[in-house]
Amino acid sequence: MQQASLDKQDMMMTPPAGEPRVDACPYAKSVAFLIVSGPTVLRQVLPALALAAPLSVHLAADGESAWNFVLHERVDLAIIDAGLPENDGFTLLTRLRRRSDMPVLMLIENEGDTERLMGLRCGASDYVRKPVDFDILWTRLHGCLRRQVSQADAASRYLQVGDLSLDSASSEVRVGGNQIYLTAAETSILTALMRRPGAMISREHLTETALGRSIEPLDRSLDTHISNLRRKLSLRAGQEGRPQIRSYRNRGYALMMPADDTPA
């Protein structure tokens, strides 16, 4: 089996030649995992995930670096080691739950129920005892994602951020109850931003998802669409109760409520 460098913070996991492939996750074209743990647990978890392409795996050694990653990148599911020093894993879980409903799987000690109960009370979706058993890990990962997709299917049609609402089925957009007419590209960009309020969405992701093509050098078409959205929806600073589109220079955009403008 190929060796995964534990120092590498971002990698695409692909099954080694000759290894049997575990059923790939059917819930997304590519699933982004964040694993927060030390090297011992990573050596148990990474080989299991390496058989489950297509997915991307991001590694973090502590809660603070994991939190900074979540603020700026897409994460579909987090695996957090409850044994991080100074209860860092539980602190991270609590912060995540204030901002996201992503599935979180806790890795807990094999003996006793203290970590299990604490994790569930803090909002963990499920748990796996250490040392990690491959079959149990993968079964519970599938279960977390399956529940997440079922919930998302029910809630994904109607999006609401402040007094801004969007019906993704009919593409109807309203601000303060008043219907606003957008182009198809503008609606696609707004939908991507509203599905992850408070999180920066990269220019590359917005261009590919909303405009259906890869971003090109000196390409400013996305910025033009964002400018039109701000004008049509009055998504500028100073509008009470209304979100605003925040720019991250040369990186991306985020839909923020005024109180969330400075990330925690």
Q: Treating each run of at least 4 consecutive H or I residues as one helix, how many helices? A: 8
Count the strands? 13
Name the structural class: alpha/beta
Overall spatial form? elongated
Outline the secondary-structure elements:
Layout: E1 10-13, E2 31-36, H1 39-49, E3 55-60, H2 63-72, E4 77-81, H3 88-99, E5 104-108, H4 114-122, E6 126-129, H5 134-155, E7 158-161, E8 164-167, E9 172-175, E10 178-180, H6 184-195, E11 201-202, H7 203-211, H8 221-233, E12 244-248, E13 252-256
Parallel strand pairs: 2-3, 2-4, 4-5, 5-6
Antiparallel strand pairs: 1-3, 7-8, 8-9, 9-10, 11-13, 12-13
Concise synopsis of the structure shown:
Helices cover 37% and strands 22% of the residues. With 264 residues, it is α/β, with parallel strands linked by helices.
Name some characteristics of this structure.
six-stranded mixed β-sheet, 37% helix, four-stranded antiparallel β-sheet, 8 helices, disordered N terminus
Summarize the structure in words.
By secondary structure, the chain is α/β, with parallel strands linked by helices. It contains eight helices and 13 strands. It has helices spanning 39-49, 63-72, 88-99, 114-122, 134-155, 184-195, 203-211, 221-233; strands spanning 10-13, 31-36, 55-60, 77-81, 104-108, 126-129, 158-161, 164-167, 172-175, 178-180, 201-202, 244-248, 252-256. It has a six-stranded mixed beta sheet, with helices on both faces. Strands 7-8-9-10 form a four-stranded antiparallel beta sheet, with helices on one face. A hairpin with a 3-residue loop joins β12 (244-248) and β13 (252-256). α2 (63-72) runs parallel beside α3, α6 (184-195) crosses α7 and α6 crosses α8. The chain is elongated. The protein starts with 9 loop residues before the first strand and ends in an 8-residue tail after the last strand. Residues 1-28 have low confidence and may be disordered.
